Amino acid sequence: MAKKLKGDFFFLTANDLQTGAVLFFTKKGWLCESSDAIKIPRERIEHYEKIARKYEDDCRIISPFFVELDESGGIKSLRDKIRNKGITFKLKNV
Amino acid sequence: MYKYSKTDKQIVKARTKQFKNQVFRRIKGKLSEEEFKPLRLMNGLYLQLHAYMLRVAIPYGELSSNQLKKLAEIAKKYDKGYGHFTTRQNIQFNWPKLTDVPEILSELAEVEMHAIQTSGNCIRNLSSDHLAGIIKNEVEDPRPWCEIIRKWSTFHPEFSFLPRKFKIAVTGCDEDRAAIKVHDIGLKLINKNDRIGFEVYVGGGQGRSPYIAKKLRNFLKKGDLLNYLEAILSTYNELGRRDNIYKARIKILINELGIEKFKNKVEEKFKKFSNQELIIKKEDIKKIFSYFQLPKLNKKKGIVKNNKDPKYNIWLKQNVIKHKISGYSIVLISLKPLGKPPGDADAKQMKGIAKISDEYSFGEIRVTHEQNLVLPHIENKNLFLVWKKLRNLDISTPNIGLITDTICCPGMDYCALATARSIPISQKISNHFRNIENQKKIGDLKIKISGCINACGHHHVGNIGILGLDKNGAESYQITLGGSSKNDASIGQIVGPSFSEGNLLGAIEKIINLYKKNKKKNEDFLSVFRRIGISEFKKYLYDNTS
Q1: What is the CATH number of the domain that holds B520?
Q2: In angstroms, what CA-CA distances link B77 with A90, B17, B93, B336?
Q3: Which of A3, B30, B65, B184 has the most neighbouring CB atoms within 10 Å?
Q4: Of the residues B362, B392, B422, the one at which a domain ends
């Protein structure tokens, strides 16, 4: 999970096992919004890996991973930004 | 249309029940994700960026109106109200909940549909010509043969865990609309000395190592089809690599072994097979063919007439083609209206098309591998009415085969494997070239866009192919030129360094301009490209002094 991580700060994210929805780990637990996500420094990665594993074992989440943050504390990669904000075009008639 | 046998019904029902139990065990923690993942994939269920995605098989692109109505219901009830028709004639739902999937599968089973073998290293859903059985100059309808192969390949015990996924396409025409030469096996029905049989191609494919299939057999007797497929598949199963996922497809094996050596091995096995059960009996072939009879179409004199509405006339010319029975036409419904993701249809449109089909096309619909739909049997006198109804559903765009009829994978907006977005690129192209008169001046042109090297958007065989890449964290688009998936199939050539999203449209505009400049009367893009070569395009695109 923490292999090949670059950067200094991260969010912990996963998908909800039952619905597949994107989740972020916050002080209140797993939420769909990233605005309250805990900013995790590199040295705390191992601790949060254990937390993620526990939720996986409890069948709450799947595919947890760490999202790298940029200098301003925002999500760095486009893929993770899309994953957070949703698709980048408007779905007509939906 | 295919009909489920009693056995088909039983196995689909049993599989649905089995999967319901597997989902229950997963949620209760009795199955880990590691254990569950291969089971969900066997039922077409992936985990994408935002949600689960369910891929439903549409055997060789053939749908009944009842099935399309059911797909519309599923889109509305369990998803966000739409579905995405894919380049393999399937449909994908992008937002189902895991807990709803067993229910979706059981609703699909009610209309003889399922998601079996739409994923995994097995023989995938067969694809075919979307004009099968309704077009002139066809040697024979390929759909019964697809059905025979479907029956043989479903849950085939020996071929359920192949080195890698396996795709078969069948066509019955000289003009290839099924892209058989970019499939693991491509079958073409031919007439040789008044005997009908198959020309067999093998080892085509796209992805990171694209290959055009090589001819394996000049003529195969129809009755021997399954034995010969069995010989190819068992040779691949035995010799295909399992140590490296990127080298596991049959195309790599054939490239490494050489076609002659591969052929010898297949022919050896074919001779040895004394499996009489796999020699297809004439009466069985006849029975399967009886499912694919044309509806009662009485030859009529009704000619296709223009109307005072110019928009209708444009549509008529671009989206309507001749049926083999006089007095009838084939209507191609473009799923590429301006500003919409290619291949998407919402529940209202699906329901509407099903209704139109019930009223005017004997309840039949086809899905094309170019992500459009077909109403196969429209009486000429009803064409104007059908057009009006399609227009009300916002699916009367007259752009079939033109520059805005792009093929496009879901890209990074949905797909967990993608390295760049593809749908917004398709929308930009569509918006930029939206003027229909200009599109017609450009003529036949296939733009195909993939969001990663896996090539689900078929970019390798686009006349203009666009491949989305990740270049140091930014999206970047590589252009290939001269690809084709037709009879003269060819893999596109990379034109040069990739373009940023902002510069891509300008590059395409330049390519089109050079084509227009060199175009001789009625010459299409591909012909011009093949005549003048890639160097001219390179020079024009990258020479800063020009």
Answers
A1: 3.30.413.10
A2: 21, 20, 11, 24
A3: B184
A4: B392
Task: Find the helix or strand (DSSP H, E) in which B352 lies.
Answer: helix B347-360
Angle at CA B267, nearest 5°, toward B262 and B273? 130
- Flag whether residue B93 sits within 8 Å of chain A, measured between CB atoms: no
Q: Give the separation between CA B481 and CA B542, rounded to whole angstroms.
A: 15
pLDDT of residue B544 exceeding 90: no
C-alpha atoms less than 13 angstroms from C-alpha of B329 in its C-beta half-sphere: 23
Average pLDDT, chain B: 96
AA letter at B323: H
What tens digit of pLDDT does each residue of B504-531 get?
A: 999 999 999 999 999 998 899 999 999 9
Write down the residue that tokens 């689960």 correspond to: B52
How confident is the model at residue B355, as a pLDDT?
98
Q: Within this chain, do residues B453 and B529 fall inside the same structural domain, yes or no? A: yes
Phi-psi label, residue B60: left if phi above 0, alpha if psi -120 to 50, beta otherwise: left
Within 8 A by CB and 6+ apart from B103, the residues are B78
SS3 content of chain B, % helix, strand, coil (to 5): 40, 20, 40
- Same domain membership, residue B339 and residue B211: no
Determine whether the interchain pair A92/B475 forms a contact, defined as Cβ–Cβ distance below 8 Å.
Answer: no
* Portion 336-355 of B in contact with A at CB < 8 A: 339-341, 344, 346, 348-349
Residue B129 in domain: no
Point out the domain boundary residue: B234, B259, B290: B290
3 state DSSP class of B434: coil
B126, part of any domain: no
- Interface residue B427 vs chain A (CB under 8 A): yes
Q: Using pLDDT thresholds of 50, 70 and 90, give the confidence band for residue B13.
A: very high
Identify whether residues B387 and B424 lie together within a single domain: no
Split into its structural domains, chain A has a count of 1
Interface contact A63-B47, CB threshold 8 A: yes
Answer whether residue B274 shows pLDDT above 80: no
Distance CA B54, CA A20 (A): 12
Q: Is there a single domain that holds both residue B196 and residue B324?
A: no
pTM value is 0.96
Is the same domain home to B272 and B368?
A: no
The 3 state secondary structure assigned to B172-195 is: CECCCCCCHHHCCEEEEEEEECCE
Residue A94: per-residue pLDDT: 46
Same domain, B231 and B151: yes
- In angstroms, the CA B281 to CA B276 distance is 10
pLDDT classification of B26: cutoffs 50, 70, 90: very high
| End-to-end Cα separation, chain A, in angstroms | 36
Residue B299: name the closest of B320, B324, B330 by CA: B324
Give the structural domain span for B279.
135-290
Q: Which residues of B touch A91 (CB under 8 A)?
A: 80, 82, 341, 344
